[in-house]
Structures are given as structure tokens and as C-alpha cells.
Input
Amino acid sequence: MQLTLAFIVESLGGELLGNPLLEIRGLAPLETAQSTHISFLSNPRYQSQLQTTQAGCVIVSAALRQAAPAGVTLIVTANPYLYYARLTQLWRASQKRGTAVGVHPSAVVDASAQVDATAYVGPLCVVERGARIGAGSVLKSRVTVGEDCVIGARCILHSGVVIGSDGFGFAPQEDGTYVKVPQIGNVIIEDDVEIGACTTVDRATLGSTIIRKGVKLDNHIQVAHNVEIGENTVIASQTGIAGSTKIGKNCMIGGQVGIVGHITIGNNVKIQAQSGIGKSLGDGEVVQGSPAFNYGDFAKSFVHFRNLPKIVADIENLKKQ
Output
């Protein structure tokens, strides 16, 4: 399959500097791209690759257009990475022979479940009693949607996702044993949510665990019972969120973050990777560390931490003097 640069710019915008009739046959990184490939550069750290790339066209920002050697065809846009994302969608759409819909023969869908006619349930999936799958949603292979759970429209659930497994609820007895607390709530996933492979979202003890519209979850994330994740929040791999915590809108949470239960995280919060969140956070906070605190203070403190052996040695020398 091939697209001309003229078609790409007509579809996505941007300023084309070069031959509009050039045919693009693939997308590739700068370092491996060939003359029929299109690539992108968004991080100035890698602008030296512009000098050696063989790409037929490179997507760049206005600030980096001067870094390209003469003769390199460019598409200049305000946000090269976003442009590349939209180009990837355009490319995939141009190659599709038809979007899969319906239920794969190997999937198991309970008679009481509702699967929209435009949705797709992939190989070896299980959709349990009373569950609902919305319009245009895609369940890749081996996805499980538990009873009474709701998947909105245009969602993508990747292989191995489990929606509606039991929340972790056990009542201790005097003899040290535990009585299981039945988890009788459900999971509600709103529209345009994407959930990565092997991520689990537990059903609520009572009520609903809720993933609001536009949320993007990476692979291997654990979302516990009665958690609520606000609109357009993104969470990276191996993060765990304990029960009944509420996360606001437009948050960015790095990989391997641990979040305790029963706290509230505000809107537009940024949590750096491997942080431990043990208390509520207000709107707009940026934190790092375990326990986490203000990112700027963390960076300053880490400088002192790295110098700690020298600082201790200096103190010991002062004591001797």
C-alpha cells in the first residue's frame, strides 16, 4: 500500500517542503528509514539523525526545520509526535480490507450478555452473564468480561485483559482465618478507553469500579475494587491502585507506581515512575519518590543524597579538626 505526500498533507494538514507526488510505502524510524519511508523527529536530542537519515520524508516542528540538510523533504507541523500518531491511524485505515465485527467462533458469550452488532469479540474471549459490549469496541484474544460489567463504545481491550474479577475482600475472624466478602458490584468502562494486555480491573464490593471515558491503561496494571479513574488519564505499566481510591481527570501516572487505597488524587496530577503514593494529592501536583513528594524538591534532595558519602566524610574531618 502507498500514499502520496500530497494525500497525507491534504488529510492531516502541515506544511510540505518537497515533492507532493512522492509515494510513501511505509513508516520507519529515522535511523532505518529508506527513500520510500516517512519518519518523524520530535525530540531535539536526536536531531543529529537528520543528517544521516535516508527517509523520503521527515515530520518535524518549525524549530527543527533548519536542522535538516538541504534536499530532505519535510512536513512541518506544531506537534510532530501527534501528527505521526494521526498518520499511523491514516495508514492503518488505508490498508484495512474491512473491520472485523461479530463474535469469533471460539469465544464464549452468555445468552444474556449484549454485544453490539458493530463490536468484535476475539478468539477465546469470555463474556459472562449480563455483560454489555458497546458499539465499535474490540476485544482481542482471551479477554474476560465478568458478569454485569459494562464496556462502552469504541473501546479496545488487548489480549488477556480481565474485567470484573473479584475485588480483594476478606473479613478476619478471631481464630486468624478469613471469611470471603462477596464482591457483588460491577465494572463500568466508559467510551474510548484502551486497556493494555494482562491488565485487571476488579469489580466493586458494592456499586461500581469506574473507568471514565478516554482513559488509557498500559499492560500489567492492577485496578482494585471501587476505584474510579477520571477522564483522559493515562497510566503506564505495572502500576497498582488499591481499593476505593479516586483519580482525577487528565492525570499522567508513570510505570511501577503504587497507590494506597481510600485516597483522592486531583486533576492534572503527574506522578513519576516508581513512586509510592500514600496520601491524597491536590490538583496539578507533580510528585516523585517513595513516599512521594514534590518533584522539584525530590530532584534537589537527590543531588544531596548522591553526595552523602562526601558530606559525611567532610563532617568527620571537621570533627577531627
User: Anything to note?
Assistant: The chain has a mean pLDDT of 93.
